[in-house]
Amino acid sequence: MAAARAPVLDAALMTDLDRFTKVVSGDHDIRVIVFDSADPDFFVAHGDMTTAEDPSTFVELPIAPEQDQSLNPMMRLHEGIRSLPQITIAKLRGLARGGGAELLSAMDMRFASLEHAGMAQLECRLGIIPGAGGTAYLPGPVGRARTLEIILGGQLVDAATAERIGWVNRAVRDTELDHVVDTLAVRIAALPSGVARAATEAVDAAVESTSHGLRKADELLNGLLGEPAAERLAEAALAAGAQTRDGERHLEPLVDKIT
Predict the structure, then answer these.
(1) Looking at the structure, do residues 57 and 88 belong to the same domain, yes or no?
(2) What backbone torsions phi and psi does residue 62 show, to the nearest 5 degrees?
(3) Residues 141 and 71 occupy one common structural domain
(4) Is pLDDT of 1 > 60?
(5) Could you give the number of structural domains in the chain?
(6) 242 and 197 both lie in a single domain
(7) Which residues contact 186 (CB under 8 A, 6 or more apart)?
(8) Is residue 119 part of a domain?
(9) pTM of the entire predicted model
(10) Residue 158: what are its φ and ψ, rounded to 5°?
């Protein structure tokens, strides 16, 4: 009996993800996308190793043609996901290595099961380097030195360590993972139109440089201040007790009630 095949990032899965990305990218009613896996053991095991047997077939995959064609198909796919207008959140319950870990790193946020999740970039131990964005995506959240440790060491990073170094937002008990991610997704989806995208653009601009980030944030803030939602919510907050001593002691619940 042949051994069961683990879920890898092969041509079929890449094509499905590319098709999904194209469909949702233009749907302004969708504000948050949560990526999960039906396989409790794996998010995506890694990229399809059989591509090494015929690299030309892999390079010619018609994935994300709108992205930079000098990039390989996996990079183009992940850049398509990274540039989605929606907020993307990953729910990591199992293992993700290589291209699977890079798919996670392309998303806005990652939450992991404390008991079961693990991530790794082990390409160097197989004679190559991460080829789906890992070298570009990791330095932001974890820094240069830890990026090199992850890539050159090639070891499995458990969920608690991934949280500590910044590869995932949080590692929580497996029984709490759905609640934590779904609650956050609902809160983001309930934000006034354009707010989540503006916040993300401002943060991304700041990654380039602080001065650029400040200018971009000011531009986006001024645009939002002109929207009816900003005035309505400010008035509602003040009416509910914001800027009073008692209201400021419990400001988060106060804001929850008016939104």
Answers:
(1) yes
(2) -80, 65
(3) yes
(4) no
(5) 2
(6) yes
(7) none
(8) yes
(9) 0.91
(10) -70, 165
DSSP assignment of 162-191 equals: HHHHTSSSEEE-HHHHHHHHHHHHHHHHTS
Strand ranges inside 42-149, DSSP E: 42-44, 87-92, 95-97, 109-113, 118-120
Q: Which residues touch 177 (CB under 8 Å, ≥6 apart)?
A: 91, 93, 111, 112, 113
Tell how strand 118-120 and strand 157-158 pair up.
antiparallel
Query: 172 has which bridge partners?
Result: 113
Inside any domain, residue 5 = no
Residues forming beta bridges with residue 120, ordered by sequence position = 97
C-alpha span between 129 and 94 (Å, rounded): 23
The 10s digit of each residue's pLDDT in 84-117 is 999 999 999 999 999 999 999 999 999 999 999 9
Count Cβ atoms within 10 A of the Cβ of residue 127 and give its class: 0-12 exposed, 13-18 middle, 19 or more buried. exposed
96 with 184, same domain? Answer: yes
pLDDT of the residue at 208: 86
Burial status of residue 221 (CB atoms within 10 A of its CB: 0-12, 13-18, 19 or more): middle
Q: How far apart are CA 22 and CA 227, in angstroms?
A: 29
Residue 6 lies in a domain: no
Average pLDDT, the chain: 93
- Give residue 249's domain range: 193-258
Q: Which residue has the tokens 């693990």?
A: 118
